[in-house]
Design a protein that fits this description.
mainly alpha, Putative cobalt transporter subunit (CbtB), 0% strand, 70% helix, 3 helices, CbtB_put, 56 residues, single chain
């Protein structure tokens, strides 16, 4: 009975998470760049209330 060992390189296993983070980041920047400032403020304000942080 022969046992085979497979090794994965660190560069190969880290490629997809890095690309996912890049695409997600660019998508967020693109979307927030087209939203009006009042909508972003209201969303951030609602998140602060939902997580229990005092804001005023």
């Amino acid at each position: 009975m022969a046992t085979q060992t497979k090794t994965a390189s660190a560069a190969r296993t880290g490629f997809f998470p890095v690309m996912f983070a890049v695409v997600l980041g660019l998508g967020l920047i693109t979307l927030t760049g087209h939203v009006q400032a009042a909508a972003l403020h209201d969303a951030a304000h609602d998140v602060r209330h939902a997580t229990g942080f005092p804001c005023h």
